[in-house]
Amino acid sequence: MPLFRARRSSPRPPAGQVGHAAADTRYVTLDGMRGLAALAVALFHFNISLMPHGYLAVDFFFALSGFVLWRSYQPRWREGLGTRAFLARRLIRLYPLYALGLLLGAGYEVWRVVSGSRTGLDLETIALSLPFNALFMPSPFTIPLFPMNVPAWSLFFEVVANIALILVLFRLPLWLIAAIAIACGAGLAPIVLARDAANVGAIWGETGIGLLRTGFSFGLGLVLGGLSQRSHRPRGAVGMLCLGAIVFALYGIGFEPRGWYDLFVILLISPLLLFVGTRFEPSRLFAPLAAFAGDVSYALYAVHWPFIEPYRALGRHIGLDGVPMAAIFLGSMLALAWLVARFFDEPLRTLATSALRTRAATARSLARA
Fold first, then answer.
1. Is 4 strand, coil or helix?
2. For residue range 216-265, what is the model confidence (pLDDT) as tens digits?
3. Which class for 39: exposed (0-12), middle (13-18), buried (19 or more C-beta within 10 A)?
């Protein structure tokens, strides 16, 4: 794997000199941790008692995103990758599954209205919120930013971070990005301690806190992405320990006070696991499972929300609760995530990427004519 050592920002070469940046081999430990973190979020939403700190997975996601985007796109940006091209690639990656989760959530809310449920959204709120959410924007008509798929709040902040990355952060030296991240962490800490939890960002009134939460973890991920990487990542116990550690950190039961524990995970454990996970891989026996977990993680995160209440109702109907029902829910969501990733997201992204490349090739041909 080629080494990459981040430098201070330097002038970009002319757009006509664009090449292809070397890509690192796959980080399987990071894939596994991402998949386990997505499972932890789904379990937290389904039964909070079984994964009390599952919401901290979002902070790990932000850090992981910063790392991956720096490794993948910062060399391309230096070679001339433009803002529009970057954002188009990111929307191709993020939007299809986001849109599917939104449509599933809207369909479920409409079904609740039609079935006479006294809970949930009314038709007017659905109709008013849907256009905003469809544009990847928060709804101004509800308390949650994304009322039909509440976990999508973090995807919105991911988009905000991506825009900041291409417009500003790629132009900054790593030490300044680190300083911004530390400032965000310093601003976040007293808020988390005052609330005694870091489960914030999903509703109006918490958007500033969401930005701080995103800014710290995403910024630190960028800094870790700028560090030189090993040409060889040993397999074995350390990689496996990372996979177990992410589950233990997100479970976190028995650690009090809650706010201090959340800060400990956000500020120290999550970045540490990301750092170690970039340098060690799991054993060959578990590597395929870790890779699979990474492959379905985003789909799982994007589409699980609308199924929570139906599966809870199913559990009440058949008299099943606790761990057995949670296992059924998670197993079903893993199967669904694999199906939508394999037969919806991948084909759609392939088509969109092909269209983007064709458009770029046409534009280059016209420019040379």
1. coil
2. 999 999 999 999 888 889 999 999 999 999 999 999 988 889 999 999 99
3. buried
